[in-house]
Amino acid sequence: MFGLLAPSSCTNTVANREDQDRISGFYVLTQVDGLAIPIPVAPQQGCNRTVRKGVFSISKAGSDVLPMYDWTISIDPGCQPIPAGVGYGADDVGTWSFNSSTNLSFKSMKGRGAYSATLEETSGNPPAISFAYLGNTYRFVRLMRFDDPQGVVFVKVVDQNGQLVPGVVLIYTFANGLQDGGTTPASGEIGTRGVVGECKISITPPAGYEVPASQPNPVLVNVVQGPAIRIQVSLRKL
To answer: pTM (2 decimals)?
Structure first.
């Protein structure tokens, strides 16, 4: 796991709601030490490691809640079996405040203490947030505001006999590039929320099934704000 490097300033302010709202949203990891991901980081116990992805969210205060942050960095070990003690990445959640217009203070709720982050805001570009861990600097760029128009899509999977199919992996890629999804349960159906616009849904069948030629893969659907969209896709049982 990563160790904290940068202590936070002793002076900070929650700032007004407009400032909080300006930077709130969902961010994705784009760079490590100024280089685009995926990128290798220091090996551990002879095991090479690569940063593949990371996500970060930051929210404004509510009537009875403090402003919160939440992040996860995923690192893929390049060896099998993976030795004990080799880090897969890190995650944290906590409260945040402004140290200054370009510096944020994070206070962990998972025992990571207090640390600082840099806020970048340039005209015409989404905000970016960077912080340092164990000698590496991770930079996240906002991909979605929480108040961006969104919709909900449900996908039900059946076989050629109309029977529900569990164990199907569905990956939703929304118009802003964010991905979500999962594996169908016994109901054969899963849903998720994302920004309005074109959404591509890829289908990976479980063992004993295939995607027939008549079934587009990926499926394209136009996400709209309002009532949930429900679609059905078909697999062929072998």
So the answer is: 0.76
Distance of alpha carbon 190 from alpha carbon 187, whole angstroms:
8
Residue 73's nearest CA partner among 2, 129, 25 is 2
Give me the pLDDT at residue 142, please. 95
Contacts by 104-108 with C-beta closer than 8 Å and gap 24+? 104/129, 105/8, 105/9, 105/12, 106/8, 106/69, 106/131, 107/8
Cis ω for the linkage preceding 38 (within 30 of 0): yes
Reported as a single tens digit per residue, the pLDDT across 165-221 is 999 999 999 999 888 999 999 999 999 999 999 999 999 999 999 999 999 999 999
CA distance 75 to 41: 9
Domains of the chain: 17-144 (2.40.128), 150-237 (2.60.40.10)
- 160 burial (CB, 10 Å; 0-12 / 13-18 / 19+) is exposed
Query: Quick check: 49 and 83 in contact, CB under 8 A?
Result: no
